[in-house]
Amino acid sequence: MSNASEIPLTKCVVFDCDGVLVDAVSSWRTLHDHFGTDNSLHLQRFIRGEITDVEFMRSDIQMWKAVQDPIYRDELFRAYSGVKLMDGAREVVEELQSNGVFVAIVSAGVDLFVSSIAAMLKVDDWIANGFVFNDDDSLSDEGVCRLHATGKGDVVHRLLQMNNLEVETCVSVGDSEMDLSMHVDGSRFIGFNPTRDSSIAAFNDADIDVVHGKDLRAILPFLRLQ
Ligand SMILES: [Mg+2]
Question: Which of 103, 145, 164, 222 has its CA 20 to 30 A from that of 97?
């Protein structure tokens, strides 16, 4: 852990959503569980860079539609009803904002779900990937890719620029190796409770602080609030 007096004042914290703000590893996986499908094959191919985000989303939607077609927005929304916030998520966001910290969510998860978490936690900004619905509110065949899971750094840079924040005051928090793309030059990154073997290995290799367990409050000692 860095010496607290050496680290710059924290002015911006960017959170991954799945596995960090919420106690569910993937908002895509939640929908697979709902429809009884399994896309782990494509997940591995995606992590290896063999298929794009758009191809990955399309393959997810195809699998669900093979089970049920049409699929309506309400049903997707209801599939998330059992997902809980991570312990301490509310308290951490409140603590940060009461100290003047800008709080954002940068997620490659499902927008339908991430937007409800963003509203619940009253974060300052958020972005996620997601769905397109037809006029009758049924799910279309294509996903929307607003950011690449492995290219979250571009979004972090944009957020900092839009809000006149210095990169040195930014801390990103994520649970997977793809989140390391948020660790833009000059900023800091905290690994939160990695669960996949590949994430644990990537965090071990990176020069970052890592906290374990499912309580988001564990990140607070690694920040410098005013
Ligand atoms: Mg995650």
Answer: 145
